[in-house]
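Blackboard transcription, Thursday session:
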Amino acid sequence: MTATDTLDPPVAAGEGAAKKTLTEALLYLDGVTVTFDGFRALNALSFTIDPGEMRAIIGPNGAGKTTMMDVITGKTRPDKGDVFFDGGTTDLTKLDETQIATLGIGRKFQKPTVFESHTVLDNLRLALKGQRRALPNIFRRETAAARERIDEIFETIKLTEHRGRLGGALSHGQKQWLEIGMLLAQDPRLLLVDEPVAGMTDAETAQTAELLRAINANGHSVVVVEHDMTFVRDLGVRVMCLHEGSVLAEGTLDQVSANERVIEVYLGR
Amino acid sequence: MSPSDTRPPTLIPTNGLVFLGVLAAVAVLVPLLNLATSPDAAVHVPTYVVSLLGKYLTYALLALSVDLIWGYVGILSLGQGAFFALGGYAMGMYLMRQIGTRGVYGDPMLPDFMVFLNWKELPWFWYGFDLFPFALVMVLLAPGLLALVFGWFAFRSRVTGVYLSIITQAMTFALLLAFFRNDMGFGGNNGLTDFKDILGFNIQSDGTRAVLFFLSALALGLGYVLCRFLVRSHFGKVLIAIRDAETRVRFTGYRAENYKLVAFVVSAMLAGIAGALYVPQVGIINPSEFSPANSIEIIVWVAVGGRGTLVGAALGAVLVNYAKTYFTSGFLAPYWLFMLGGLFVAVTLFLPKGIVGTFYDWREKRRPSPDALGEPLPEPKPAE
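(Written on the board underneath:)
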């Protein structure tokens, strides 16, 4: 897939959109279009994520938020457009899920997906950055460094006392945290987090915001898709509103929520 | 937090020790009671029983091979009988070559069926089968290679669930049709039979049968230890993760298809060994071993015993086959297949985790604090 017309940025880029050049961006999407049976899930979507940035993405159902994550992680191939990672060095549209995960892009699904019949500890062991090939893993021994790293992650996600339980036995909120912990264990450069606080109590939501901020402060870039506006406010980061597969508005939460079009299609009057 | 949860699960858990203990006792006692007691003694085990039990043990190993991929990776192979049969044919070809001039036609090189078909020369793929080590290599290689090629295409194309089951079924059916043909060079409909000896020992003698029985028990024991070693390793944890959430595994950076492929090939080789031990004890290998119904029966054994427990698979194979022997030799014989089908339905409805899985659950309930590091036993999904 060659570069589409980069001289012609999409009109819908919104006010205050600081679109970086290809070489500066950690993640670079340009003119990405995905069509399912005639339905345009993504319509010339363009945006960039800086190294170390955290970005919140909001938007009504069907705006293309999950499809965007599918495109970035290699689950869906775009019909048109460019998706580059790491300052334009890697074309993500040419790679599959496993290769993209290995590059350093981790993803948390909308529905919490942990390995239900493994213990919480084993869930983290499996996710921990390290050997991924089949045959060497038959004879793999756990190193002291790996154990220490796992203990650290347990501290961060506050599941230390649950390490011996089965993943499937955790509460919904705990599963969400475990999945974030698994992402951390992968040590990705970019975390894509799809609705991390769905079904959480207010206290859990606040803790999750804190957790994601801590992760971001540690040097990981984070993209969070979320409907919960309180949570988005807690994150205190740049916000982007998607609508009908492209960017409707971008800026601080106050800027975006004051946008007429955003109020019309998403927030409501 | 108990300190035990950071310890890896033991290689052989308690149920495995019981299993291996019983197996060792059977492996020693059955041949001993056959060879060292007089036929009139009350404790004497007749030779036909030794062979029958030996056959059960090879079936148990076959069931173990299915449990490795079905119970731990979620690959419901309805073609496992093909790997068993290929291992069996490799052994059968060695045994045919051992007949030499003692065949009906007395040809030193060609097995009887080739003389009968008026063949002048041994086909190239029969070369080397006069050598026992070569045959042993082929016992592993033939099923292993088929699994490698088949699995490579199937797993890479992400064929899963019922679709995978259907193509494994098609694979074994295709082989059934191929091996039926006389010009394939494997004895056609009649298969390979009339074996005389193995490594110079008379295949009919009590001593040989006792040794074959012992070897079958040994193979089953070693197969169990190998499977345990695999499933408790990091590799095995990935397998279980694939069974539960394959997409998650891919997004975590593992090549799920490679893990499946390794497990599938190991499983095919175990089935091949089972087939190689089966043939000398039963005395014949023919294309019916490839029949789809055989492969489905193996699934029933594993489901009855308890999927994802290893020990359960072996137990299920022995129990169902004992029932088969018992019921097919009486007036109930015409109804055996109905009973087998009924058994499968009953187990799926009332004992979805099989005998061993249900036993674990019952034990868990009695224990105050559940041991989460035991065997993971999710609800079996019939289509996977």
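Lecturer's comment: Chain A has nine helices and ten strands.
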